[in-house]
Amino acid sequence: MDIWHVLLIAISVSLAVPLFSRGNNNENETRIAYIERKLERKLDLLLKHFGIEEQGYSADDDLVDLILSGRKIEAVKLYRELHPHENLKNAVRAVEHLIRQHGTK
């Protein structure tokens, strides 16, 4: 593991620790999800800047994770971020197709 990986992990952990000390559980979950997305975007920019390729990952993996955890609305939002040319109706259809494909409700 090179120094950049260590640095990225250290920054992520240091930013995530204060999240668990405030508010009730529902507020924490929402706050954590927001900050997690924000950190992922920043890490993606850093990886791109330093020319580090993350292997075995695609944005579709995040979409499937959201679907498997029952977070359909967030999945639709992510789908629209990944496919900005798609309208809301098509994004919902695509996510519902993925839900059926992965056997979730």
Give the gist of this structure:
The protein has 105 residues and is mainly alpha-helical. Helix content is 70%, strand content 0%. The mean pLDDT is 77.
Radius of gyration: 16 Å
What is the helical fraction, as a range of percent? over 70%
Average pLDDT rating: 77
Please describe the biggest sheet, giving its number of strands, its sense, and whether it closes into a barrel: none
The assigned structural class equals mainly alpha
> Helix count, per DSSP?
5
The number of distinct β-strands equals: 0
CA distance, first residue to last residue: 39 Å
How many domains, in number, for the residues? 2
Strand content: under 5%
Question: What general form does the structure show?
Answer: globular
Q: What does this 3D model show about the protein?
A:
This protein is mainly α and 105 residues long. It folds into two domains: 1-55; 58-105, no CATH class. The chain is 70% helix and 0% strand. The protein contains five helices and no strands. The chain has helices spanning 3-16, 25-49, 59-68, 72-82, 88-101. Helix 3 (59-68) packs antiparallel against helix 4 and helix 4 crosses helix 5. The radius of gyration is 16 Å and the shape is globular. The termini are far apart.
